[in-house]
């Protein structure tokens, strides 16, 4: 038996693309690019929030979209459109608190556990940043009332995680905050990216097929004539030309198939169709 093998051994798992059935045939693949386009259009929407409210100057360094991220979220918010998750690096959280309340930056800021003041700041930041992020995704439209819920007892299937990496002008360090989107939110973005559905046309479907916006070009007969004779032709002139045995049917000058012409009751029909293989 010859041919190419369809079973490949020794392929690294990281090089494989895992297909999710619910994403096939829809606009899910456009969501990461859409988030990046929105971030490029409004690069300082989150940075300006931190500068205005917490006197910390951040510069967006990078944006990555993950389908799976092992990092656990720290805040969970429910909205009429779906659920948002929020998390941020401990270094960035500590810098926000110290710049807001005053104090000296300490060297070790990643030591658990999170204090009650840090958790309150996380909740406040999460609510505001999620609202800003949601409005940007919906082109200025509000995501609705955000209600914070306990993530400990809530199991959510996340579709995408947007990781915003920022560089602090004060410390020069890079840290990230994370925004999570669940299934209903991804479905809502998919619906908006797909655009409005086409209007349903009433009536007999067969009649609509006859009026499809498609033009088929077919040369039924051809003859060799000198240019002088062609220029002398007038409407109504009769030429004796034998029809071609096989005719080519084209759409926009592209050959689709060949067929035979036959006549029945004064009407020409195309039959015996065969496809044309284009190189």
Automatic annotation (TrEMBL):
Gene3D superfamilies: SpoA-like. Residues 208-266 form the Flagellar motor switch protein FliN-like C-terminal domain. Pfam families: FliMN_C (PF01052). Signal peptide: none annotated. InterPro entries: FliN-like_C, SpoA-like_sf. This is Flagellar motor switch protein FliN-like C-terminal domain-containing protein. It comes from Pseudomonas nitroreducens.
